[in-house]
Each structure stands twice: as C-alpha cells, then as structure tokens.
Design a protein that fits this description.
mainly alpha; Helix Hairpins; 2 helices; 83% helix
C-alpha cells in the first residue's frame, strides 16, 4: 500500500476514534451532574482525537498536493 492509501486508511481510523470521543463527551453532558468529575478526562480525549484527526488530514492534503 502506498503512502496515500496508508494515510487514507489512517484517516478513516482516526475519524472513527474522534466521532466516538465526541459521542462520549455528548453522553457525559447529558448525564450531568452525574460523573462530573470525569469532564476533564473525557474532554481531553475528545480534544486529542480531533487534534490527531486534523494532523492526519493535513498530512494527507500535503501528500496529495505534491
């Protein structure tokens, strides 16, 4: 598999992870004030997932523009 295909596969994997993190954050918000102590952990996971998604997306775009 070439670099482009590898990055596309990685992007799909990272996207799924980011979507799950978003849903976890959404679910937590609906349960508040129950489990309020986990807000920072869940939010950090969502933040990290979307940061990784952004990095991967930018890397794929850069590869496609060369």
């Amino acid at each position: 598999m070439g670099d482009r295909e590898t990055l596309k596969a990685e992007l799909r994997k990272v996207s799924a992870k980011a979507i799950q993190a978003k849903m976890d954050l959404h679910d937590l918000s609906e349960e508040l004030p129950i489990n309020w102590t986990s807000i920072m952990v869940v939010a950090q996971k969502a933040y990290d997932s979307y940061a990784e998604l952004d990095r991967t997306s930018r890397a794929l775009k850069a590869l496609e523009n060369t």
